[in-house]
Design a protein that fits this description.
This protein is an all-alpha fold. It has eight helices and no strands. The mean pLDDT is 88.
Length: 183
C-alpha cells in the first residue's frame, strides 16, 4: 500500500467517526512496521521497539478524533505520537529510584519530652521579656525579627530616621539580654 496522505487522513477519520476496524488495520499494516523501525533506531532493543510501536498505534486508535488534516498529514501526526511515546518511556526508564533513606524523606527525630518542655519554657521567657519592653521598641523588634522587615522599611513605615530605628532595636536587644540573663 502506497502512502497517499488523503487516503491516510480518510482512514484516521473513519477510525475517529465510527471506530472502523478495517481502516485501523490498514493504518496499522502501513505504519506499524515504520514506527517499529523508528523505535528500533532509538532504543536498539527489539522488544522495547515492539512495545512502543503497539503503544503508539493504540494511541492512534484512541486519539483519532484529535487528528486535524489541516494541521499536517497523517504520517507526521503518527510519528509525533511515536516520538512522544519514546520520550515518555525514556523518562520513566531513567527516573531515579526512590531512596527511602534520602534525608528529604526521613522524618526528623522526635525531641525528647524534656527538651521540648525546656524549649517551651524558653519561648515563654522570651515572650515575657518582650512584653516588658517599651511599646516602640517591642514593635520594632517583633517586626524586624519575627516579621522579617528590614530596618530601612521600618524607618519608612514608622516615619523615623534609620538611625533611630537601629538605636531602638539595639537598646531593646540589650534589655532582652539582661532580662534573659545572657551576656
Amino acid at each position: 500500500m502506497t502512502e497517499d496522505p488523503e487516503d491516510m487522513s480518510r482512514l484516521i477519520a473513519a477510525v475517529a467517526r465510527v471506530q472502523d476496524v478495517d481502516a485501523f488495520e490498514k493504518l496499522f499494516r502501513h505504519f506499524g512496521p515504520r514506527v517499529k523501525a523508528y523505535m528500533m533506531r532509538h532504543t536498539g532493543n527489539l522488544q522495547t521497539a515492539e512495545e512502543l510501536m503497539q503503544e503508539t498505534m493504540m494511541l492512534v486508535w484512541n486519539k483519532a478524533a484529535l487528528f486535524d488534516p489541516d494541521k499536517g498529514n497523517a504520517s507526521t501526526w503518527i510519528f509525533t505520537i511515536a516520538r512522544n511515546s519514546f520520550i515518555s518511556a525514556y523518562r520513566k526508564q531513567n527516573r531515579p529510584e526512590f531512596d527511602p533513606n534520602d534525608p528529604a524523606f526521613v522524618p526528623d527525630d522526635i525531641e525528647p519530652a524534656d527538651v521540648e518542655f525546656q524549649n517551651r519554657q524558653e519561648a515563654e521567657r522570651v515572650r515575657t521579656a518582650l512584653k516588658e519592653l517599651p511599646e516602640e521598641q517591642r514593635e520594632l523588634v517583633q517586626r524586624s525579627f519575627f516579621g522579617d522587615v528590614s530596618h530601612s522599611d521600618l524607618a519608612e513605615e514608622y516615619g523615623l530616621p534609620l538611625g533611630t530605628v537601629k538605636s531602638r532595636i539595639r537598646m531593646a536587644i540589650a534589655k532582652l539580654r539582661k532580662s534573659l540573663g545572657e551576656r
